[in-house]
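Example 3.
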Amino acid sequence: MQAETMNTSLCSAGYDSLLEVMRRRRSIRSFRPDPVPDGLVDRILEAARWAPSAGNRQAHRFLVVTSREKIGAMAQAVEAATQRLADHLRADLAEQVASYLANFRHFVGAPVVLVAIYRTGFDLLRAVTPSGSAGELPGAKPVVDALASVSAAIMNLLLAAHVLGLGACWMTGPLVAAGELMAILEVPRGWEIAALVPVGFPAETPPATPRRTLDQLVRRID
Ligand SMILES: Cc1cc2nc3c(=O)[nH]c(=O)nc-3n(C[C@H](O)[C@H](O)[C@H](O)COP(=O)(O)O)c2cc1C
């Protein structure tokens, strides 16, 4: 076999197995009560550690919450905030939105809840302009690098959880109670919660959710 052909087939095998992992991962919303060994949690966090980040700043952290008391308090705060929201829904959308809101609280059943936080307040454009005047620059956009970077880390950990036989779900719905969650978890000033990621052994095997075709997703500019 020519070296080039061999490399291509090696790449292809790597691609196939990577894609298979991506295609088989599901959001898991129901968990067995079994605890997750610390070693497995560490392994998924290790995968998160290797994600790219803007300027390699790694301006994010993970809180690993296993305290039933804390997880219960978090769920109660989300329940209350969700209820307040449900009381103010547009009548024509109430039913549709209510079923969406139902998906904000299932993290309560997970043995571990990872909370991804990111540092706010660093804005590259502001940092490089005198007197932080970037906001007035034509075309200047708010910088969301820290949130984008923590999101890359979350994706890494979801894939790692999946290959280790764990289930997980990326959740931003609970952030309806962001303020209360930050107080419960004592998130320091200058940091925000990006997402909650409940992790545990799956108690369900959901079917694949549909995806748009490449034609729908891609516009080529040649
Ligand atoms: C940014 C983000 C926020 C999400 N928030 C929630 C959530 O609050 N509750 C939930 O049940 N699922 C949430 N999900 C999971 C999506 O519903 C799920 O990824 C999507 O339906 C596709 O299903 P799959 O992950 O099984 O492929 C979220 C996903 C992302 C990327």
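The first helix runs from residue 3 to 24. The helical segments are 3-24, 38-49, 68-86, 94-101, 124-128, 145-163, 178-185, 214-217.
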